[in-house]
Structures are given as structure tokens and as C-alpha cells.
């Protein structure tokens, strides 16, 4: 099952998005590509849906990267099938490799830029929910996985990681700007400015 997001116009290169509700414990996985380009990336393959292939065929797209915001099973349950079908490299943070059944093709530390078509996706390390949680941002949008939600933040194993996550959101996500649209893996999209001002967990 997929839902359609119109291209995100930001004054920078517009980004086209399609989201898919996938997995046994459903999450929202995202397909993203630059306007007029044929290379796309997929964020968080929590499961597989043939609608992903139909969407790729419809828009004439090729997936050039599969990005994991973290290594929890509900975000990686479709990874094996997706890599078999799409044959794209997998990117994950080094601190979450231990959570995966197979090592990623590319191990991240944070601060890298992943090129895909006309877009360069910056990797932001936002530990807390897991040690290797990351967000991916380009052209006025950010995929936040289970780190930042509309009105909430990701669960953490202890108070120290809770504070670590709050600090990472303030230091890595808030500087993206109030108009940056955040796409979490659960629930609706939101704006960084709304979360900065109103999220009760970030006051």
C-alpha cells in the first residue's frame, strides 16, 4: 500500500516522494528522487510490497541506495527481499551493524553525503533510540526514522540515552531550519519548527 506525497518545493531541487506502509509491524518506508531524475533511494525497508516495483516502473526509476535509519527489525524486515530484487547497496551506521543479519555494503559514521541523482543526502548521526540511529536530509526534507515524530520522540532504553537523543535532535535536526519537513517512520510528517516550539519532549 502506498500513499502519494507531491514534490516538495523548497527553493532548492524539488524532491518527489512516495511512501509505503510495509512490514509485519507496519512502518512507513520512503522512495525519494529528484525532479526529472531517474535515480531514487529507498529509506527503511521494513517489508516488501509489489507496489514498490510498480511505482519504480511507472516513473522509470532505478534505486541507487537503500538507507537504514537504524537497525531494528521493523525497519529491516524487507531488506533481504529488497536487495535481491533491486540490487542496490545498503547503507547503515556502524553502531547498528550488530543489529543486522548481514553487514551493510556501506558503513556510516555520520557527516557523509550520499549522492543519488541530482541530490546529495547528508547523514546526521542522532543516537538515542539506538546507538546508530541516523537521519537523512536533502533539499528541505529529512527522514527521521524513529528519532523524531510529530509531537513525540523515539523510545530509548534508559534515561542517559533519552538525554542523548534529545541533545542530538537539538544539535543535528533543529539547525536544518524551521521550514524543513520531517518524515518519520510512524505517523504524519511534521515541520522542524513545529517540533522545536511545541514538542513536549524537547522543551
Structure description:
- With 203 residues, this protein is α/β, with parallel strands linked by helices.
- The protein has one domain (2-202): 4-Layer Sandwich (Metallo-beta-lactamase, Chain A).
- The chain contains five helices and 15 strands.
- The protein has helices at 50-59, 73-76, 79-86, 159-173, 192-198; strands at residues 2-8, 15-22, 27-34, 39-43, 62-67, 90-93, 106-108, 113-116, 119-125, 134-138, 141-145, 148-149, 152-153, 181-184, 190-191.
- The chain has a seven-stranded mixed beta sheet, with helices on one face. The chain has a six-stranded mixed beta sheet with strand order 8-9-10-11-14-15. The chain has a two-stranded antiparallel sheet with strand order 12-13.
- A hairpin with a 6-residue loop joins strand 1 and strand 2.
- The longest helix has 15 residues, at 159-173.
- The chain is globular, with a radius of gyration of 16 Å.
Query: Which range best describes the helical content: under 10%, 10-25%, 25-40%, 40-55%, 55-70% or over 70%?
Result: 10-25%
Oligomeric form of this entry?
single chain
Query: For the record, what CATH class applies?
Result: Alpha Beta
Supply the CATH architecture: 4-Layer Sandwich
Biggest sheet features:
7 strands, mixed
Question: Strand share of the residues?
Answer: 35-45%
- State the helix count: 5
Radius of gyration: 16 Å
How many DSSP E strands?
15
Low-confidence spans: pLDDT under 50, at least 5 residues? none
Q: What is the mean pLDDT?
A: 94
Looking at this structure, what is the CATH superfamily? Answer: Ribonuclease Z/Hydroxyacylglutathione hydrolase-like
Compute the number of structural domains: 1
- Please provide the ordered H/E string of secondary-structure elements: EEEEHEHHEEEEEEEEHEEH
Strand order of the largest sheet: 1-2-3-4-5-6-7
Query: What is the distance, rounded to the nearest whole angstrom, between the alpha carbons of the first and last residues?
Result: 36 Å
* Class computed from helices, strands and strand pairing: alpha/beta
3D shape = globular
Amino acid at each position: 500500500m502506498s500513499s502519494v506525497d507531491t514534490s516538495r518545493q523548497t527553493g532548492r531541487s524539488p524532491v518527489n516522494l512516495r511512501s509505503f506502509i510495509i512490514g509485519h509491524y507496519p512502518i512507513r518506508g520512503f522512495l525519494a528522487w529528484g525532479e526529472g531524475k531517474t535515480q531514487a533511494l529507498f529509506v527503511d525497508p521494513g517489508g516488501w510490497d509489489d507496489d514498490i516495483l510498480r511505482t519504480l516502473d511507472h516513473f522509470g526509476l532505478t534505486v541507487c541506495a537503500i538507507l537504514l535509519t537504524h537497525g531494528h527489525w521493523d525497519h529491516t524486515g524487507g531488506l533481504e527481499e529488497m536487495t535481491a530484487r533491486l540490487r542496490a547497496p545498503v547503507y547503515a551506521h556502524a553502531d547498528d551493524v550488530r543489529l543486522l543479519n548481514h553487514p551493510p555494503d556501506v558503513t556510516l559514521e555520520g557527516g557523509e553525503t550520499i549522492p543519488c541523482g541530482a541530490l546529495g543526502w547528508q547523514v546526521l548521526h542522532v543516537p538515542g533510540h539506538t546507538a546508530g540511529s541516523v537521519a537523512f536530509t536533502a533539499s528541505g526534507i529529512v527522514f527521521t526514522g524513529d528519532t523524531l515524530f510529530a509531537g513525540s520522540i523515539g523510545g530509548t532504553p534508559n534515561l542517559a540515552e533519552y538525554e542523548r537523543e534529545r541533545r542530538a535532535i537539538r544539535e543535528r535536526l533543529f539547525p536544518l531550519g524551521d521550514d524543513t519537513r520531517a518524515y518519520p517512520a510512524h505517523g504524519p510528517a511534521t515541520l522542524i519548527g513545529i517540533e522545536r516550539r511545541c514538542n513536549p519532549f524537547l522543551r
